[in-house]
Amino acid sequence: MAELLDLVCGPASPLPETHQRYRLVQHIASGGQAEVFRAVRLSGGVSSAPLTVKVFRLNDSRPRAEQLRSWDKGDAVLMDLNSRGVPGICRRADGFYGPPPHPPGQQPRGEAEPYQVLDYLPGLNLREYVQRRGAGAAGALDAVGTLDTLVRALLALHHPADPGASPVVHMDVKPSNVLILPSGEARLIDFTGARYFRPDHITTIAYTREAGGPEAFSGRVGPAYDVHGFGAVAYYMVTGAFPRSESPGQPGPGEAPLPPWATLRRHPVLDSQPALRDHLLAPLADNPEDRPGTEELTAWTARLADLVERSNTPDHGLFWGVSRSARVVGRAGVRSEPVAPAGGDWQRVERLEQEVVELRAALGDSRTRTGGAAAAGAVAGAGAAALAADRPLWPDAPAEPATVRTAPDATVRTPTAPPVDRTRVAGPVPPAPRNEPGTRVMEPYRAPEPQQRGVAAVPQAPRRPDHDDTGSTPPEEPDRPMRPLPGARIDTLRRGMGLSVTGALFSFVCWGIWAIANRNAQFLNNLVMFLLVLAIAVGLFALCRLVGRLVIEGMMHRSRASARLSHLAVGIFLVVTGVSFASRVSWINYAYNWIVQHVH
Length: 600
Hints:
Elements (H helix, E strand, L loop, with lengths): L6 E3 L12 E9 L3 E10 L2 E2 L3 E6 L7 H21 L7 E7 L14 E7 L4 E2 H9 L6 E2 H16 L9 E2 L8 E3 L5 E3 L6 E2 L8 E4 L14 H17 L28 H4 L2 H8 L15 H13 L8 E2 L6 E4 L2 E4 L9 H20 L7 H17 L50 E4 L43 H9 L2 H21 L5 H33 L8 H20 L2 H14 L1
Parallel strand pairs: 9-15
Antiparallel strand pairs: 1-2, 2-3, 3-4, 3-5, 5-7, 6-7, 8-11, 10-13, 11-12, 14-18, 16-17
Organism: Actinocatenispora rupis
Protein name: non-specific serine/threonine protein kinase
GO molecular function: ATP binding; protein serine/threonine kinase activity
């Protein structure tokens, strides 16, 4: 059980009281770049409902400015998604720069770091839920409703309703990032690694070995990367296991070397049911182009529910059918009839919510008390103790896994981080959970550095001239160029290039035959004619890409994963041009006419 914290934090500003705007009352988890706390907002001695505060954690192995830019990208994306009204995600309430958390009444010290304030969502993640329910406890989570909630969130990310809005890739869809609320609703959380789907914005890639797609190793990620994560969530809900191997293993004698990414594992439940296996593995294909599109996931989920209902799969506390007795909240729900024993798991979550309501009422009485700010602060402290005294949702459930980020090079090594001690400013913090499944940031052309686990209080780094106490920053330097990701756009242009190359080779052979047959003319004139044909082909390719951008991206609001149609048009043009060259050779015309006459 996490113990009481007594830390405050707030934005850097001329008003000293703003440094104690938020009181951190309990440590929740360790993320890839931050420590996560339960907190309350203080204003004139009055406390708010619980909130979640993410405190940036500096990694000394990476440049500070680079880490801040990475954090800012994820924060900007989440704030934008809140403005768009994207359903099924955790809402961002505030964000600011401030000094590290410190005990109340003390002068804050240290360099200002970024904070993020989110809605506090009671509940447990899907990984914890499936593990606990797989142990035999009763359950009633609507599996189809949970997956449909994820589909609606991903559709809003990948295909925004506003034509001017940029698509977003979450980057880290996995069971531990799907939160199940007491009502049965699902929420997609942890947008720290989220990025706009633009090459200049995706300079780092979040990768979880057991749930991430192999394209992370090439740097070419897009909406299909989230589809793979969605497939990993569905796979976990059906089997209770992650779809990809936890360790690379060793190839057997005479076997080909294993790829650097985690390979798909075999599951006995799926081996005996090929129809369910083939359907469940479709979003997990190694090739992103072989996966269903985001817009196809609703129908895919309905088909999955039908296959699971007719199959013999383990009971993980999920129901896959359409139950008329379900109490639907959004599209996820829980059965209305009681299915857990009195005092069971869901009742504990509901009791936590009731304590929050009672806490707000108690803190609200502070406005009528005497004693000024000291009495109000005592009430806030009592509220913090009440928040921190709640029991764990599942007494023997594993803690939320920490996300670990490293910076591998092109070969992408996966070192195992040794356990290290954890400290914080006031009071003990529970030991860090195991790194399963771990998340890492893949940065091209960077050697791997050992990741140091963070602390509850933000580390105090030496003051740098690029930040002052107000949290203001000078104009940003341009982001470091992403080598494989000039990447994203250039590789898109290359897809389908074989069509153009084939057409060019055919045209060149035909031109060569014509040039030899027409050797009486100047060779330079013949060469200029062929170069003119190639220039027209390049112009045709550019025109096709422009039309595709206006129609597919501008009018249909869809991204283009390849340039096959443009290359096909160029290939056809070059083949026609080659035939035109060949038709000018007399002996080819004679051979063609002879074949036609004898065939007919």
